[in-house]
Amino acid sequence: MPKLIGAAAIILDSEDKVLLVKHSYGKNNWDLPGGKAEEDESAQETAKREVHEEVGLEVGIGQLTGIYYDPNYDMHHFVFLANNDANQIPQPSSPEILECRFFSRDELPKPISDFTCKRIEDALNHERQHFFHTVGPRQWIE
């Protein structure tokens, strides 16, 4: 079976708040815009496509901030900084997304998983030493 790849984008506004999307399925939880790679698609292309599909933004994909391996699904998640240079306004543009908003890192909405919080913390930590992380089952903050 081929390895699964996922990618997500960290998009900041002018106040360094991070864009999160609220899913219309599962726990209706907040998450980074992102998803699974399609065939013949790089992790960067996945992040760019998923942002466009979920919130309608055309972003530039920047620096890699972390790679997360989830042994439960044998999946690697890549996280990138993405820039919204045109200052477009994100709007839910997929049935999977109920809403999208910018949040400050110390006022993240709930429900949210520890995995989402970790990816945001790592991305905003400019002192980060490690890019590769192994993650366990999600813990929910509700």
| CATH topology value | Nucleoside Triphosphate Pyrophosphohydrolase
CATH homologous superfamily designation: Nucleoside Triphosphate Pyrophosphohydrolase
What is the highest CATH level, the class? Alpha Beta
Q: Beta-sheet strand percentage?
A: 35-45%
Strand adjacency order, main sheet: 4-1-6-5-9
Helicity range of the residues? 10-25%
Q: End-to-end distance, in Å?
A: 34 Å
How many domain modules?
1
Tell me the overall shape: globular
List the helices and strands in order: EEEEHEEEEHEE
Number of strands: 10
Radius of gyration: 14 Å
Quick one: biggest sheet?
A: 5 strands, mixed
Number of helices: 2
CATH architecture level-2 label: Alpha-Beta Complex
The overall average pLDDT, rounded, is 95
Can you describe what's shown?
The structure is a single chain. This protein has one domain: Nucleoside Triphosphate Pyrophosphohydrolase, CATH 3.90.79. It contains two helices and ten strands; from the N terminus they run ββββαββββαββ. The strands form three sheets. It has a five-stranded mixed beta sheet, with helices on both faces.
Briefly characterize the structure.
This protein is an alpha+beta fold.
Blueprint (SSEs and pairs):
Blueprint lengths: L3 E8 L6 E6 L6 E2 L2 E3 L6 H13 L4 E11 L4 E9 L13 E7 L8 E2 H11 L7 E3 L5 E2 L1
Parallel strand pairs: 1-6, 5-9
Antiparallel strand pairs: 1-4, 2-3, 2-7, 5-6, 8-10
